[in-house]
């Protein structure tokens, strides 16, 4: 989107634009720190898998009330979530969370009062490290009420009131500050997918309706405006028009694939914006295209059309 810097500039640009580029009829002008945390060893009092760690309600914060919120976590486990990756759970399968407003070095909980009712602290006593994890990552922090809260990697651990069944992760990203805990106390996160290969600055996509069309580095369809001209190179798209039809920024010839390079020059617009041209025609994208593959600009007003690899209008009446 282009922003006009002054009223006089907008007035000057409102006229048909003459540009400067040779060859298109233009002039040549152009690690965990424990802090106050205390290590928690493998406890001999860990509950056995299958015990209800949240009282009779099967969750906490309902029938279990305050009693259920103080239940020991027992034998920790690590579950694999497609969305979140590796997540720490207690012996009953309930997710453990961490709070961005806490600190890990030194460990400190900033969830008290009503916050602690919704996010009860996990007691530090009676905890056994999950199989395959580092027991030394477990620790404790003394809360304002004097109780000891479990920490992992220095981060205080909590449960969430609205998790009522094992495996629930209703607390994930609540308020943008609560996150399921990974085995090292960091935020749980699925492994990043391999990045897609970078697209050239301009290339060709086969559209099911239009055939071969030129697209930019984002995969967005490239268009031409019938009211423009190539010789001399001029643009009739100014002002509000450019808000709907942003210019394609200059692209290096080496960063193209499958398109015509004759007349592939930079269009130096009078407003100071540099625009790519193909076969000397200025090219644009469309603000109404929201994702790669969209062709919502095709045929708009009978004047805007997608561009072929040869730089021609696709589907325009002759």
Automatic annotation (TrEMBL):
State the residue spans of region: Disordered: 29-74
Superkingdom, according to UniProt?
A: Bacteria
Q: Which Pfam families match?
A: Lipoprotein_15
Check the record and name the PROSITE patterns matching this protein.
PROKAR_LIPOPROTEIN
InterPro entries on file: Lipoprotein_repeat, SCO0930-like
According to the record, the signal peptide region is 1-21
Q: Which UniProt keywords apply?
A: Lipoprotein, Signal
Compositional bias ranges of the Polar residues kind: 29-50
UniProt-recorded name of the protein = SCO0930 family lipoprotein
